[in-house]
Amino acid sequence: MSNVIVLGAGMVGSAMAIDMAKNHNVTLTDLNQSLLEKLKLQHESLAIQQLDVTNKEALQTVIKQHDLVICAVPGFLGFKTLKAIIEAEMNVVDISFFPENSLELDALAKDKKVTAIVDCGVAPGMDNVILGHYNEKMKLTDFECLVGGLPKQKKWPFSYKAPFSPIDVIEEYTRPARYVENGKEIVREPLTDCDYVEFDKVGTLESFNSDGLRSIIHTMPHIPNMKEKTLRYPGHVNYIRVLKESGFFNTEKVEVNGVEVSPLDFTSKILIDEWKLGEQEKELTVMRVTVKGENSNGQTEEIVYDMHDEYCSETNTSSMARTTGYTATAAANIFLEGLFTEKGIFPPELVGKHETCFNYFFKYLEERNISYKKSSRLM
Question: How far is the C-alpha of 90 from the C-alpha of 84, rounded, in Å?
C-alpha cells in the first residue's frame, strides 16, 4: 500500500482520490477547505489537507511525504505545478491538460530521475494509449480521434453542459486547431470542417476541428495523417460561431457605461449557469478512435475502438470523471506496481506502446464498467 497525494478536489480529482483509496493511503488537497470537508464526510478513508499549489515551497514540502503525486489542478496552473513537482524529485501522473508543451520538461525530469506520465485522461489519454500500441504493430498511415462529453438531456440553444469552467470550454473553441495531413502540420480555425457522424445509443453528432493532438504531433511525426475532432449535438457549432464571430470571446476589455469589462469574462459569467452540470445530472462520454495502416501481413487494415459511457448512479460519478479519472488512476497503479519505470516525460502513447501497460489500462477500465468495443476490417 502506497501513500498517494492528489492535487485538486474537483470533479475528476475527487473521483481519482476515491478510486485510489481502495488500495492506497490517499491525501486529497485543494485550496477550498469546505469542499475537502464535504468529501471527507462522504469518504472517511480520505485524508484531506488544504493546499495552495501556487505556494511552491508549501507544495514541495507536502508532496515529499508521499510516494506518488496525481495532479488535477486547473489547466492555467498545470505547467508550473508540474515543473515544481518534478523539481521536488517526485513521480507524478498529470491530467491538468495545460496548453504548454509538457515535453519541454523532459530533460528536467530525466535529470531529477522522475517518471512523469502526462495528459493521461480519456482524450488526450486513452486514444494515445491505443495509438502507441498499434504504432508498434503496424506501419500506420492514419489516426483519428472523435470525442465529446454531452448531457443526456438536450436543452436549447446549446444542448451542452460542461463539468468544468466555461472559460476552459471556450479555450477549445478559440485555440487554433493543429492536425497532420500528408505529412505536413496544418493549422486551421477551430469549429471548422464540420461533419455528421452516427453513434450507437446517441444518434447523429457533429464533429469539428479542435486542438487535441497535443504530444503526438511531436512523438509520432512519421504518421502522415492525424486528426482529433470534438463531438457535440447538431446545431451547437452554429451558435458558438455566432458568439465567436460577434466578439463575445474577445479578451480585450471594452467600456460599458464607464466600466471596463472583458467580453470573455462577461460571456463566461452568463454561460456558467447555462452550461453548469448538475451534481447528479446524467451525462455521457462518446469516443471513436480509428487507426489505419499496413499490418504484419502486409495488408491495409483499419481498426476502430468505440467507447460509450454514462453517469454512474450507483457511485454518483459523472462519466467525464470516470473516463478521464480512471485512466489516470490506471496509470498511477501501473507505476506503483513497477510496470513502467522509465524516467522523463511520458505522454500516454509512450506508455501504451508496452503490451503489458496497454492491456492493464483496458482491464482496469473494464473492471470499472468502462468498455472499449474493438472492430477491424481489411481494406
Answer: 9
Provide the residue range defining the domain that includes 92: 3-121+320-370
On whether both 208 and 179 belong to a single domain, the answer is yes
pTM: 0.94
Q: How many domains is the chain built from?
A: 2
Which DSSP symbol is given to 257?
A: T
Answer for the pair 204, 231: CB distance below 8 angstroms, yes or no: no
The strand pair at 225-232 and 254-256 is best described as: unpaired
Give me the residues paired with residue 64 across strands: none
What nine digits make up the cell of 35? 469542499
- Domain of 13, CATH number, reads 3.40.50.720
Q: Which of 276, 310, 344 is the last residue of a domain?
A: 310
- Which residue, among 15, 370, 365, has the nearest Cα to 163 in the 3D structure? 15
Mean pLDDT by 10 residues, the chain (379 residues): 95 95 96 95 94 96 97 92 98 92 96 97 96 98 97 92 78 91 95 96 96 93 97 96 95 94 92 85 95 96 97 91 96 97 97 98 97 96
